[in-house]
């Protein structure tokens, strides 16, 4: 339907161009790298939790990430963790002692930016309608901020 979605198998998975370079640049400058991801297709029965866990493990093994937090609820569940709710961000804040006022959340949906706002960090929208075309260009801007 023209919307991006998570892969339903490892065969469908691939990294977006520039993601490895962007995460390596951020990590080399001391940034904590945490992914917060909505995965409602598990609750909808469209993909298994095992596949999502396998993809997330591959992502974490391939990139210099510190952790991945995932919400498996749908909008109907009205949970606090599902973005635009700030739950996963606040959970990461507690676990990793994060100063959210000095933090950035880079996302490709308005719900990502709203979650960042609700949690008290700077949201950066990437993609066609975003502040930046991709993660690599957003990374360059983040590094120029000198936090």
Question: What layout of secondary structure does this protein have?
Answer:
Blueprint: H1 19-28, E1 34-38, H2 49-62, E2 67-71, H3 87-96, E3 104-107, H4 110-119, E4 122-125, H5 135-145
Parallel strand pairs: 1-2, 3-4
Helix pairs in contact: 1-5
Mean pLDDT across residues? 94
Unreliable stretches covering 5 or more consecutive residues = none
> Strand arrangement, largest sheet?
1-2
Q: Sheet bearing the most strands, described?
A: 2 strands, parallel
What is the oligomer described by this structure?
single chain
Any idea what the CATH architecture is? 3-Layer(aba) Sandwich
Instruction: Count the DSSP helices.
Output: 5
Shape: globular
Spell out the CATH superfamily.
HAD superfamily/HAD-like
Proportion of beta-strand residues: 5-15%
**CATH top level?**
Alpha Beta
Number of discrete domains: 1
**In whole angstroms, how far apart are the ends?**
39 Å
Structural class: alpha/beta
Q: Which sequence of SSEs, written as H and E, runs from N to C?
A: HEHEHEHEH
- Assign a percent range to the helix content: 25-40%
| Radius of gyration over C-alpha positions, nearest whole angstrom | 15 Å
Task: Describe what is shown at a glance.
The mean pLDDT is 94. The chain has 147 residues and is an alpha/beta fold.
């Amino acid at each position: 339907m023209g919307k991006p979605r998570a892969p339903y198998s490892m065969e469908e998975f691939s990294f977006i161009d520039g993601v490895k370079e962007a995460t390596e640049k951020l990590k080399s400058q001391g940034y904590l790298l945490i992914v917060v991801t909505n995965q409602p297709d598990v609750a909808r029965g469209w993909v298994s939790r095992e596949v999502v866990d396998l993809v997330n493990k591959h992502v974490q093994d391939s990139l210099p990430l510190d952790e991945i937090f995932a919400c498996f609820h749908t909008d109907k569940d009205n949970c606090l963790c599902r973005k635009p709710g700030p739950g996963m961000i606040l959970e990461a804040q507690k676990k990793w002692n994060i100063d959210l006022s000095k933090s950035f959340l880079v996302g490709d949906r308005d719900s990502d930016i709203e979650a960042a706002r609700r949690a008290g960090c700077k949201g950066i929208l990437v993609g066609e309608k975003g502040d930046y075309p991709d993660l690599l260009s957003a990374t360059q801007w983040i590094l120029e901020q000198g936090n």
